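stuck on whats below:

***
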Amino acid sequence: MKIIVDAFGGDNAPLEIIKGTMLAVDEYGIDAVLVGDTDKINDCVNKNHITLKNTEVVNAQGVIDMCDDAKAVLKEKADSSMAVGFKLLNDGKGDAFVSAGNTGAITVGATFITKRIKGIKRPAIASVMPSSDKPFLLMDCGANAECRPEHLYQFGLMGNLYMKHIMKVKSPRVALANNGSEETKGTPTVREAFELMKKAPYNFIGNIEGRQIPFGDADVVVADGFAGNLILKTYEGVAKVLMNGIKQAFMKSAVSKLSYLGVKSGIDDMKKQFDYKEYGGAVLLGVKKPVIKAHGSSDCKTFKNAIKQAVCFLENDLISVIENSLIDSKEERIYGKS
């Protein structure tokens, strides 16, 4: 199993990316391909006394910045580490691609270089999120700001398969993010998607309001990329505010600091439960090969866990599972035409 890594994607590249990749090589027994400026990679490795094991370095001179237009990966910066990584994936030089770089560029590169699975209208970014019960999948988290009803229908299909085969949920509950639980609520697009999803070959449980999402009332929450990204960022922000508030409450006095010792293990468990580093990043579902979008601020642990998602994706052959589902599903033959 060989994982291609964009060594210059993200805020902490290349050091944390290289360190995270080496952690993954050791822990998961993979081979790696680091893509980026060879001189800078070698300089970083030497300065930080890192030994590259089972790793090939492929030269690429450019870098996709966070402020770059998403389409730059196709033309203006076709020599960038991200673009070269996608080309290597497309040419069969690796089994999956992981980058902490520009989300829009990753989506464009995956769609137009790696290309969509036949029958899938729009790839979607799927993020595993924590809840009070167990993790759930939120999609789309930003790839498609505007969606048609059939796109949302397919997001439910792919999310269902991810939770079933990767997270081992026997019958995932798929819900549609909305401003009310009633069938009549929401925009025309959401209402039409509701009607399609009622007939879907997965366990559709109806609409879900934002306040119910953190309680784990669904295993897959479907939204367009605009709403999904708002849910994702709000979720992360509120979790950070709450954890900071708890810390401040226990730091108020000597007595409160002592009382903290009695609940420390429980708080540590809660911090781990809501720590995005445990999940590593998001999967781009709907393209022909596994593409993982790691968090832009990834440290080595976070990036290692992003690579773990790629490993799980490959071990469970999710691409074939999605392809076979499209063939077997009568509904997908109707709504899945490209």
